[in-house]
Amino acid sequence: MSVTKTPTDTDASLRADLGVESTYRDINDVQLHVVAAGESDAPLVVLLHGHPDFWYGWRDQIRPLVEAGFRVVVPDQRGCNLSQAPDGIDAYRQSELAADVCDLIRGEGRESAHVVGHDFGGFVAWNVALRHPSVVDRLGIFNVPHPTVYRDTLRSSLEQIARSWYVWFYQVPKLPEWLLRRNDMDNMVDSLEITSNPGTFDAETIARYKAAWRHTGIEPRINWYRGFRRSENPSRNTVTQPTLICWGEDDIALVPSMAEKSIDHCENGELRMFPGASHWVHHECEEVTEAVLRHLSSSAC
């Protein structure tokens, strides 16, 4: 049984500055909140946020993409912000999250789209490209490795094992939920501030993130990590679509060597490293948006 909530429009003030439309869509048996902008018949780009983000994390990319002639669709992924949060861990397996994206693209009347993801949204983007290659035209990845590279590195690198301590912690029942909820979600705020450069998230932005976390609560977001651990591997390992990987070198959670290894799993891959940038590379470097525009525009019609 899913947790059903009445659709709200609490993101109205956020959307006003960006000129995006807000809708609720029935996607893969889950109701997702989706914002969209751009002409309905323009080339389609789907932007996928990660943890502990929501659609607003793409605010710096939406307008440039629309101005470049794209239709931009940005979901709150299941369990996040205004979207529905299904019960249970299996609802957050990568196969389900990838199926959400495929349904979202079909709901736009398309057979395929460009897909760009950051953090956990990057894992979803990798999985869409690997599990449903015909659905992805071009792939964009921000600071998350190819799933095989991440799995292999966890088996071979003590440094990455140490950096991924929170992944193991989130597998513990109930304790992570209690810890992240306490003190007005201060630990969730820390997850933004510790992983970013100073000033990336100001007080007003953090307040907006807290409001997003309150809608569905903490448990669905932790279930993303639990579901990831239960996810079966895709049947293929090589990405055939043109792929751009943008990587902030100062990511404290992921060793940068995984970026280069990820390119080895792409038939047509480009890697852009950004010295001095953190895990939140697309917030901190305007060049990231420019690189994505070039990558996607080369096939725009």
How would you sum up this structure, described in words?
With 301 residues, the chain is an alpha/beta fold. It has a single domain (2-297), classed as Alpha/Beta hydrolase fold, catalytic domain (Rossmann fold). It has helices at 12-16, 59-67, 94-107, 120-131, 147-156, 158-163, 165-169, 175-193, 203-216, 219-230, 257-263, 281-284, 286-297, and strands at 2-3, 21-27, 30-37, 44-48, 71-75, 85-86, 113-118, 136-142, 243-248, 269-274. The strands form two sheets. Strands 2-3-5-4-7-8-9-10 form an eight-stranded mixed sheet, sandwiched between helices. Strands 1-6 form a two-stranded antiparallel sheet. Helix 4 (120-131) links the parallel strand 7 (113-118) and strand 8 (136-142). Helix 3 (94-107) packs across helix 4 (120-131). The longest helix has 19 residues, at 175-193.
Short description:
The protein is α/β, with parallel strands linked by helices and about 300 residues long.
